[in-house]
Amino acid sequence: MTITIKDIANAAKVSTATVSRVLNGAGGYNEETKKKILQIAEELGYRRNEMARSLVKKSSNLIGIIMPSVSTIFYADIVNGIEKVAQKQGFSVILSHAGVKGNRLIHCLKMLEERKVDGLVIVSIPLMEDQIQAIESLSIPYVLLSTDTPNKQIPLIKVDDYEAAYAATKYLINHGHRKIGLAGVDYSDRVAGTPRIEGYKKALKDHGLSFSANDIKAGDYSFTAGKEALYAFRTEKSGITAVFCVSDEVALGIISAAYELGIKIPEDLSVIGYDNTRVAEMAVPPLTAIEQPFRLMGEKGCFKIIEAIQQKAAVKTEMLPFNIVERASVKHWKH
Amino acid sequence: MTITIKDIANAAKVSTATVSRVLNGAGGYNEETKKKILQIAEELGYRRNEMARSLVKKSSNLIGIIMPSVSTIFYADIVNGIEKVAQKQGFSVILSHAGVKGNRLIHCLKMLEERKVDGLVIVSIPLMEDQIQAIESLSIPYVLLSTDTPNKQIPLIKVDDYEAAYAATKYLINHGHRKIGLAGVDYSDRVAGTPRIEGYKKALKDHGLSFSANDIKAGDYSFTAGKEALYAFRTEKSGITAVFCVSDEVALGIISAAYELGIKIPEDLSVIGYDNTRVAEMAVPPLTAIEQPFRLMGEKGCFKIIEAIQQKAAVKTEMLPFNIVERASVKHWKH
DNA sequence: CTGAAAGCGCTTACAG
DNA sequence: CTGAAAGCGCTTACAG
Fold first, then answer.
1. Among A48, A51, A62, the residue to mutate for chain B (most B Cβ within 10 A)
2. A114: Cβ under 7 Å from strand C?
3. Does a structural domain hold residue A335?
4. Per its UniProt record, what InterPro entries does this chain match (chains A, B) (predicted)?
5. Is B330 a domain residue?
6. Residue closest to B84 by CA, chosen among B311, B295, B319, B304
């Protein structure tokens, strides 16, 4: 038998309106009745029904997350960040997985619309115009995290991949490297693919180094892609002395293959990773890597959404700073 | 302007009751009206309000997850598994983090009760009797994943830590090791601590090997704990030839420290990990480890909860099988 | 300061 | 096969 404000009203011999008022601290009742009602609520173990409340208030205090179904470690940090600030602000989070490439996005959207979420955060799914339309049609605040879209009006929070790739490459150049590879990148990925390639190329160019297409090894950001990349570099005798890896996992793959091939890191080959996930410090040698602030990304995203909900304002795009965490996988190259 | 069944009813010149019936496929209406209503709903872009529906049906099709606030990688797999089957069964998932040691559990519980979740899955938080009482008081199906409680009536799904530790230790013994360490374990952790210690001891004993308290290095399952453990073994000249690590991260810590100390793995020291997370295959050398089926755990947990909700039956405890994934960190010891 | 009443968007006996 | 009506558990003008 679940107990409602009606039960409290009966016990306190007041109307449900009054009960509602004191339970919500709406003001406009004397201390006596307040005390009585609060005490009875306590005694009866009353718990409010958020569904009923949301129904009349037309606001659910729910924020929806849509993310890919892959268990890459950094999603955990993003989600942690989101839920943490949601909780602090009195919101709850409803989570949905949109398949590996986000192909179930529309399905998730429908569910979240039916659940009447007040806001939406979409993690790491590259969006096309028709999907943007579907999202817009909900008419609620939303933000993209760690991804983007060709439509430049859309609010997003991420690190500038071009800049970060530029910085990583420059870091290697500053360490004396003149022949630098790029490993694990997906050419068709316009969010984490092409911008990083461009940043890499630009850094090379700005420092008077020539670029060779052979120095880029494509892949899917995975450990295996990293291993394959090094084997490829090896058989081609490419002569690279350093490699910019498009993820930490790719970097670990390079390190693993290097071990198999008897290539010493960083003595024979320097490696820089991307993301700075937990595996970076666990590598042997510990991995120098571009750090992305995933947790912060989640926190900011959620914070902005809640702000937008409460102020009925639009969310604004924000580029987050990255950072180079220096460990031991890059060495100064001596000519 | 959000559109409701009333709008559809008006447009179709029928009652909301009829609209509701066809939208729910309840039967008892002719094809004509059905077609008309469905078409109008489509045209108007109708989307049902789950809050209103839940309110009258007294069932939300919502399942709540409570988990610790730490971003250990395997939580992602568990949550993935849960949400996947929830989605398939028409349920949605609301996620809450209960702090590092689950100290905000009661807070989460209250929120989930207000949200009227139909079922509850609690991940990796060791529960005491008073917390169990709080959970029981919701009177909804629940299950614990990858954790347990002193109260043996409580439904849970996990791997048998004692058995797994026994198997890991035995595996090392079968590979010729006679002096085996245990690293990274928390003595005060009755779920992943003491049972693994006991399993380890028992395996030693069953194979006629003596046990020395010095061969156990306490820790918090972390990478750092692993490093410290190996340094301790080293300075004590303990003479171990293999070490059973209480997590993959501890194992990586051992490997990392070994590298610093010039100890070769597996030539000088064999290492076995626990969990078989993604880092296991990325280690150099690739890590042999006890595998826990995290994703399966999430799937089974969610499935059982939904079953319990629908059949109003209690969830039954299930122990999941573990597995030893052999890679290259353990070698046959020659005397 | 307090209550009666309407309403949020649905579902479901009960009649016909 | 279909509709009128009540009700799920709340909140909130509107009166007094």
1. A51
2. no
3. no
4. HTH_LacI, Lambda_DNA-bd_dom_sf, Peripla_BP/Lac1_sug-bd_dom, Peripla_BP_I
5. no
6. B295
Q: Are residues B199 and B218 in the same domain?
A: yes
Give domain status of residue B69, yes or no: yes
What is the rounded average pLDDT for all residues in chain A? 94
Of A262, A250, A249, nearest in space to A181 by CA: A250
Q: State phi, psi for B39 to the nearest 5 degrees.
A: -65, -45
Count the Cβ atoms, other than its own, within 10 Å of residue B35. Answer: 11
Q: How many domains does chain B have?
A: 3
Spatial contact of B268 and B242, defined as CB atoms under 8 Å apart? no
Q: Does the beta-carbon distance from B95 to A73 stay under 8 Å?
A: no
* Nearest nucleic acid nucleotide to A47, CA to C1' distance: D9
CB of B252 less than 8 A from some CB of A? yes
Please state whether strand D lies within 7 Å of residue B18 at its CB atom.
yes
| Residue with nearest Cα to nucleotide D11 C1' | A56
> Is B170 found in the same domain as B280?
yes
Q: Quote the CA–CA distance of B224 and B218 in Å, as a whole number.
A: 11
Using an 8 Å Cβ cutoff, are A206 and A222 in contact?
no
- Tell me how far apart the alpha carbons of residues B154 and B158 are, in angstroms, rounded to a whole number: 12
Cβ atoms of A86 and B108 within 8 Å: the answer is no
Q: Are B96 and A87 within 8 A, CB to CB? A: yes
Residue A335 has pLDDT above 70, yes or no: no
What is the rounded distance in angstroms from the CA atom of residue A258 to the CA atom of residue B224?
A: 25
Among A5, A43, A7, residue whose Cα is nearest residue A22: A5
How far apart are the C-alpha atoms of A300 and B309, rounded to whole Å? 36
SS (H, E, C) B93-162: EEEEECCCCCCCHHHHHHHHHHCCCCEEEEECCCCCHHHHHHHHCCCCCEEEECCCCCCCCCCEEEECHH
The pLDDT tens digits for B246-292 are 999 999 999 999 999 999 999 999 999 999 999 999 999 999 999 99
Query: Rounded distance, CA A233 to CA A239, Å?
Result: 8
- Residue-range definition of the domain harbouring residue B19: 5-48
Is residue A241 exposed (0-12), middle (13-18) or buried (19+ Cβ within 10 Å)?
buried
Nearest-Cα distance to chain B for A203, in Å, is 30
Using left for φ > 0, alpha for ψ between -120 and 50, and beta otherwise, residue A94 falls in beta
Mark whether A172 and A258 lie in a shared domain. Answer: yes
A87 strand D contact, CB < 7 Å: no
Q: How far apart are CA A310 and CA A63, in angstroms?
A: 13
Which nt sits closest to B50, CA to C1'? C10
Exposed / middle / buried, residue B262 (Cβ in 10 Å: 0-12, 13-18, 19+): exposed
Whether residues A190 and A96 fall in one domain: no
Instruction: Judge whether B332 lies within some domain.
Output: no
Phi–psi pair at B150, nearest 5 degrees: -65, -25
Q: Is the CB of B52 under 7 A from strand D?
A: yes
Nearest in space to B181 (alpha carbons), one of B226, B229, B244: B244
> Mutate which of B62, B63, B95 to test chain A, going by most A C-beta atoms within 10 A?
B95
Q: Based on the domain organization, do B42 and B141 belong to the same domain?
A: no
Whole-angstrom distance, CA of residue B258 vs CA of residue A95:
41
Q: Are residues B237 and B274 in the same domain?
A: yes
**Average pLDDT, integer, range B14-42:** 90
pLDDT single digits (tens) A165-190: 999 999 999 999 999 999 999 999 99
Render the burial of A172-211: b for 16+ CB within 10 Å, e for the rest. bbebebbbbbbbbbbeebebbbbbbbebbbbbbeeeebeb
Cβ A255–B116 below 8 Å, yes or no?
A: no
Closest CA–CA distance from residue B205 to any residue of chain A (Å): 33
Q: Is A223 on the interface with B (CB under 8 A)?
A: yes
